[in-house]
Write a structure and sequence with these properties.
This protein is α/β, with parallel strands linked by helices. It contains 15 helices and 22 strands. The structure holds succinic acid.
């Protein structure tokens, strides 16, 4: 373990996987490095298949007793978990910033966002009410019960090392499921620290397991096990599709939060400052590495020049640097491959006629940071099909509403979309016309524990957060009582 990692909060650091309440080790280990510097932060066990099986069995053994505990007990444990996370928000944020690279303030913000799911679902645990239904036979009643689906296998991404853990674990646990979770190989420490706090909050040992190791092996074990009744995944469309195919064998329930190629649309009648601020907030969060980041910005002909100039001015002023540098707004890319993709997208846009307005190159010799970049014009087709996942915003010109709706929807994806217009009728028309699960009107930030989050088309299915976030973890049982 390095001193860097220790500085992030010694008490929170776990370099073992969590199986049945114990921190377990394995014969081989995987090193975790800091995206900002490449330094090794520490390591986690590369679990053997038998250890993964052990976790699944322990989750199965714990599931019934956990589901049978009163909802008020589950709720109180989750509330306690929420309190512990909030009490440690700064140390957890530092850990997250180290392994993910996002600026410290943003990382602490993510910890609070993560806690908000725990609090929300602690409350939802208390509202698992069923129905009483009168049938056509005199005196007969159907009663419905909402029961936990069973053991959940969850796989989470590196871009939100805390919030994607709690957005899955909290509703699963609130519903009475137990959960075997594999965090992203790049960012396991935040997940392990959150799990340590869950145990401290009183979660029974078998209720939450955190597995580290080979992603393909763990994913295959989760989808092959008849004990796992549901798979919940956030990540790429390619991996989501493979998991759904594997889960089909055992008819496991699946929910998938996958990639997007979000459009952000600025109409002539938009408030320019609102649109610029919204576009910055949406696009440059986590250095552009979120599934809901706009991948392509469309500005109408009458505002195009003004929008590009103001937007590029603000983008050019964003401070790039390592997460702990004061005032930093844009951290490193998670990997070299991530950086190369951003570079390739800028080059392809320019080759299609786009004009470079700001940025466009690596920010330093290390090859970990990329300048926040804006281009204007060129061909938008690449950006309908492929997520850039980096700090690059291409802006395209459009003539009218019909044209932009067609362009916005001409993508296999449908996760997020953003519209900036002061025309109320147009706001409603756009909200209805856009094929996306999450829409922001005059805002670039839609993230909230209260908001049903999820996609359409190849961005996946299922909803997380909000009152819908419990549904995928619940099976409705009906009982008919005949007098
Ligand atoms: C994501 O991009 O995967 C999650 C974004 C959010 O929750 O805000």
């Amino acid at each position: 373990m390095t001193e860097i990692l220790e500085a992030a909060g010694r008490a929170l650091i776990r370099q073992g996987a969590l199986i049945n309440g114990a921190w377990v080790q394995a014969q081989s280990r995987l090193e975790i490095s800091e995206p900002a510097t490449g330094r090794v932060l520490g390591s986690v066990p590369d679990l053997a298949p038998s250890q993964v099986a052990q976790a699944i069995h322990a989750a199965q053994a714990a599931q019934r007793p956990w589901a049978q505990s009163p909802p008020s007990v589950r709720s109180a444990i989750l509330e306690q978990w929420n309190d512990l996370i909030l009490a440690q928000a700064e140390a957890l944020g530092a850990l997250l910033a180290l392994e993910n690279g996002k600026p410290l303030a943003e990382a602490i913000g993510e910890i609070r966002y993560a806690a908000s799911f725990v609090h929300w679902f602690a409350q939802e645990a208390l509202r698992l009410d069923g129905d009483v239904i009168a049938t056509s036979r005199a005196g007969e009643r159907i009663i419905t019960l909402k029961e936990a689906v069973g053991v959940v296998g969850a796989i989470t991404p590196w871009n939100f090392p805390a919030a994607m853990i709690t957005r899955k674990a909290a509703p699963a646990l609130a519903a009475g499921c137990t959960i075997v979770l594999k965090p992203a190989p790049q960012t396991p420490f935040t997940a392990l620290a959150l799990a340590a706090l869950a145990l401290e909050a009183g979660l029974p040992p078998g209720a939450l397991h955190i597995l580290t190791g080979d992603s393909a092996m763990i994913g295959a074990a989760l989808t092959a096990s008849p004990l796992v009744r549901k798979i919940s995944f956030t990540g790429s469309t390619a991996v989501g599709r493979a998991l759904a195919q594997a889960a089909a064998g055992g008819l496991q329930r699946v929910s998938l939060e996958l990639g997007g190629a979000a459009p952000l649309i600025v109409f002539d009648d938009a408030d320019l400052e609102k649109a610029v601020a919204g576009a910055i907030a949406a696009k440059f969060r986590n250095a552009g590495q979120t599934c809901v980041c706009p991948n392509r910005i469309y500005a109408q002909a009458g505002i195009f020049e003004r929008f590009v100039a103001r937007f590029a001015q603000e983008v050019g002023a964003l401070k790039v640097g390592a997460p702990f540098e004061p005032g930093v707004q844009i951290g490193p890319l998670i990997s070299q491959a991530g950086l190369l993709k951003v570079e390739a997208h800028v080059a392809q846009a320019r080759a299609s006629g786009a004009q470079l307005v700001t940025g466009g190159a690596r920010s330093d010799a290390s090859g970990r940071f990329f300048q926040p970049t804006v281009t204007a014009g060129g061909d938008d087709r690449l950006f309908r099909e492929e997520e850039t996942f980096g700090p690059y915003a291409p802006v395209f010109r459009f003539a009218d509403e019909a044209q932009v709706i067609e362009a916005a929807n001409a993508t296999p994806y449908g996760l997020a979309a953003y519209v900036f217009t002061e025309n109320g009728a147009r706001q409603w028309r756009m909200a209805s016309a856009l094929e996306a699960g999450v829409i922001g009107i005059n805002t670039g930030i839609t993230s909230s524990a209260l908001n049903p989050f999820g996609g359409m088309k190849q961005s996946g299915y299922g909803r997380e957060g909000s009152r819908y976030g419990m549904e995928d973890f619940i099976a409705v049982k009906s009982i008919t009582f005949t007098p």
